[in-house]
Write a structure and sequence with these properties.
Elements lengths: L1 E5 L6 H12 L2 E4 H14 L7 H10 L2 E4 L2 E4 L2 E2 L7 H11 L2 H15 L4 E5 L2 H5 L5 E6 L2 H14 L6 H17 L12 E4 L5 H15 L10 H15 L8 E2 L12 E2 L16 H11 L2
Parallel strand pairs: 1-6, 1-7, 2-6, 7-8
Antiparallel strand pairs: 3-4, 4-5, 9-10
Length: 292
């Protein structure tokens, strides 16, 4: 299952997504860190930002690895370096580059594969994983986001004012939302979560509740349990060779067609709706249909 968390800068996506992934036992995918790593690699090589094609070539050359919340660039742990102001300021060159985005989007899909993943970024629910079953748009007011960013930078020893952060944030919001490729946009089927006034734990609690509401209670198929039981009844009926035991062939069933349906004598009483994770009724139903 893929859970996408999109939203503007400073909304607390990374910390919330990381904590959510740990609670669920999912993999955490910080896509914003990937663009930051590309920007850092370019800064290390004194890249000329007026040459976007060279940045694409650089993106193909470097080796990016993500291990939970750690980011490795060509084997070196750059998890802290990519959060510097200089990198933050330059990241838009990577994020706005269609060629770079194409490479990183493909990498993000490859990393996710068939795993259970919480993926956070700007375009996860709209571009990277448009078919994700659970999409969340995490946001907060501009003032709240700037306050959080100020606390983060101050804790790292960086000297910056609230006004400077708010101004940079407004510029970044406009750039992110008007980007020609992969712009910041809430997916039509995403659930918006406003985090103002919520503690970090309260945000994660709310997100976990949303995700678990999308989790199917059946561990084998992503279909509702009643639908699964209907399929089970028909499958056993069609493949039971002797036609005996607890099932009887319906008089109007035609031999050799899909209309051969078995019904139990008397009125059929479906089992009570199961609790979360409780599938004992399905196994009992299988035993009843198949016999000893």
């Amino acid at each position: 299952m893929i859970v996408t968390i999109d939203g503007p800068a400073g909304a607390g996506k990374s910390s919330a997504a990381k904590a959510l992934a740990r609670r669920l036992g999912f993999r955490f995918l910080d896509t914003g860190a990937m663009y930051r790593a590309v920007a850092l690699a370019a800064l290390q090589r004194d890249h000329d930002w007026s040459r976007p094609e060279a940045l694409v070539a650089l993106t193909r050359e470097i080796k990016l690895e993500l291990d939970d919340d750690r980011v490795f660039l060509n084997g070196a742990d750059v998890s802290e370096s990519i959060r510097d102001i200089a990198v933050t300021t330059a990241t838009h060159y990577a994020a706005d580059n269609p060629g770079v985005r194409e490479i990183l989007v493909e990498l993000q899909r490859t990393i996710a594969g068939s795993q259970n993943v919480v993926s956070e970024g700007r375009d996860q629910g709209t571009v990277v994983f448009p078919d994700a079953p659970c999409k969340i748009f995490l946001t907060a007011t501009p003032q709240e986001r700037a306050r959080r960013r100020l606390e983060e930078l101050t804790s790292r020893g960086e000297q910056v004012t609230f006004e400077e952060i708010l101004s940079q944030q407004e510029i970044r919001d406009h750039r992110d939302s008007t980007r020609p490729c992969g712009p910041l946009k809430q997916a039509e089927d995403a659930i918006e979560v406003l985090t103002d006034g919520l503690s970090a734990d309260e945000v994660v609690d709310r997100l976990e509740k949303l995700v678990r509401a999308h989790l199917t209670p059946n561990p084998f198929f992503h279909v509702p349990t009643p639908a699964l039981e209907t399929c089970l009844v028909r499958f056993v009926a069609r493949h039971r060779p002797d036609g005996g035991g607890p099932g009887v062939r319906h008089p109007r069933a035609r031999q050799g067609t899909h209309s051969k349906i078995w019904r139990r004598p008397g009125p059929f009483k479906p089992p009570e709706p199961p609790g979360s994770g409780d599938h004992r009724h399905l196994f009992q139903r299988t035993i009843e249909l198949c016999g000893p």
